[in-house]
Amino acid sequence: MSDLFDVSGRTALVTGGSRGIGLMIARGLVQAGARVVVSSRKENDVAAAARELAAIGDCHAIPGDVSTQQGAAALAQATRERFGELDILVNNAGTNWGAPLEEYPASGWEKVAHTNVEGVFHLTVALLPELRAGADAADPARVINIGSIDGLRTPPYENYAYSASKAAVHMLTRHLAKRLAGDHITVNAIAPGPFESKMTAVLFDSDESREAIEQTVPLGRIGRPDDVAGLTLFLASRAGAYLTGTVIPLDGGITGCG
């Protein structure tokens, strides 16, 4: 059983890997012995994250913007030139936009849709040759998309484009999983609940607001780095090799017990 969750020696790309859930996932993979590439739009931020993680394992930085097809293609090409094969792709890069219903701008929809949905699609397609290269029935390549419980339930916030985009990510996960199963590539999604990140910082800006959110979680706390790292390791290792097309809520019971 010692190798059931082993990802040592495998190559992973984590988009949006310079902070928040992406950094939590990247750190978990590095600590487990994977060779990890972290990517995000801001070159200084992703370089700093890679330096931090390189102190504990094998980590590299490649700046990239997946919000355009050209940006996704450029990131795929840079990854291809650096490593050749890719075992694990974590599509985590995302953005949010909140505004009152009757003031919600078209620019908010465009920004969120381009990054959260189209970015997942274009980068996955661009990296298919690298994902197929080393995959076989016994050890498939893995695509792990980061959705949200806001794509599974009606959120309490006016983040219309975000919730719609994450529901789209969940369906795209299932659609890609069906199409790529014959290529020995599994595609699954994690739908996190409340975790600390720059995107959710406004929700945890005081002890009172944090406590209020924790009270909405059946398990009584927000997510921790080990929670998302552990689920990622399951999906990325031999333990998760027979799973594809799933959307797994990681939310302390919010959707399952509601």
- CATH topology-level name: Rossmann fold
Main sheet record: 7 strands, parallel
Number of DSSP helical runs: 8
What string gives the helices and strands in order? EHEHEHEHHEHEHHE
Tell me the name of the CATH class.
Alpha Beta
Based on the structure, what is the oligomeric state of the protein chains?
single chain
Portion in beta strands = 5-15%
Helix/strand-derived category reads alpha/beta
Distance between the termini: 35 Å
| Whole-number count of domains | 1
The coarse silhouette is: globular
| CA radius of gyration | 17 Å
**Using DSSP, what is the number of strands?**
7
The CATH architecture term is 3-Layer(aba) Sandwich
Average of pLDDT: 95
Brief synopsis:
By secondary structure, the chain is an alpha/beta fold. It contains 8 helices and 7 strands, in the order βαβαβαβααβαβααβ.
Account of the protein in words:
The structure is a single chain. The chain is of the alpha/beta class. It has a single domain (11-108, 130-250), classed as NAD(P)-binding Rossmann-like Domain (Rossmann fold, 3-Layer(aba) Sandwich), CATH 3.40.50.720. Helices cover 41% and strands 14% of the residues. It contains 8 helices and 7 strands. It has a 7-stranded parallel sheet with strand order 3-2-1-4-5-6-7, with helices on both faces. α1 crosses α8 (225-236) and α4 runs parallel beside α6. The protein is globular, with a radius of gyration of 17 Å. The termini are far apart. The model has no long low-confidence stretch (mean pLDDT 95).
